[in-house]
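Support reply, case 0932

Customer input (verbatim):
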Amino acid sequence: MKDVKAYAAQDKDAALQEIQIKRRDLLDNDVAIDIMYCGVCHSDIHAKLNDWGNAKYPIVPGHEIIGKVTAVGSSVSNHKVGDLVGVGCMVDSCTDCSACNEDMEMWCENGSTSTYNSKDKHLGGHTLGGYSKHIVVRDHFVLKIPTQLDTKAVAPLLCAGITTYSPLKHWNVKKGDKVGVVGLGGLGHMGIKFAAAMGAETVMITTSEEKAQDAKRLGANQVIISKDLDQMKEHNNSFDFILNTIPVGHDVNPYLALLKRDRTMCLVGAIEPLENIHGANLILRRKNLAGSLIGGIKETQEMLDFCGDHNITSDVEMIDIQDINTAFDRVQSNDVKYRFVIDMESL
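Our regenerated output:
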């Protein structure tokens, strides 16, 4: 086993600080990676604070990992030393259930292994994430990073990117579709970029007039201020798809009214109870309210290749690891455009 520096919280009230962790010795199908950059996801904060009631301490967050391969196991043929690679939200699954066989490892029927805070089937205890210098991952879960992109700005694609790309692909967003993106944050800004690159008429739907200019810079053709009831009414029954990235419970009824008959609004942010949903908004025009998580490994690689072809990265602010606790506070205050990325050279 190898001793590695990392940043961890010992309990929900503790600050993240430097500790030593252990990484396993290389197995035949493993890839060893020196971590260069790690994105900061709002999920990292929820997990650290035990907002979901399943936190395992000490917790080392981080599931938006970019690094260089330093060693590969004897059975690994798809990665080699020196490759630029990524690791997202998963590091293992059974690979043999119906979900895994359909390239949807995130819904592994035997339970996928998250990059942190999951049972560690090799070392015991729980998995420890990317706020660290080094990680060892099963080769199937290691992704190839397009080298033409700004490497540090690729990191958030491993979570925010695939979270927004997957539903747009699943619901077949295409050129000429009218697509709404609700909420302009870490997820929403990626949703705009992807929808625009797919050729859709992309509409930012936000409560904030101040965000209109930035939304258009990111690729939105139009902005609707959702507090303006007249604006919203003008667009009723006109959208082919709506990607709702609001991260907290909210009233979805005004957004459902925007959909055409037989069309879908997909939630990717609010994993908590919603306010009362008016059945008529679904029944009268056979509309759909759905949800989506991340994507499988095959689709995540497809997303990264799409980003390479269309020069898509996240808008990032770089920080040193020593600034991570301040960054957590700023994320909770919506004071970032649009994702923090840690330069792991600082550890």
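We compared this against your earlier run and they match. Two observations from our side: Residues 118 and 126 are 5 Å apart (CA to CA). The first helix runs from residue 42 to 48. Please reopen the case if you see a mismatch on your end.
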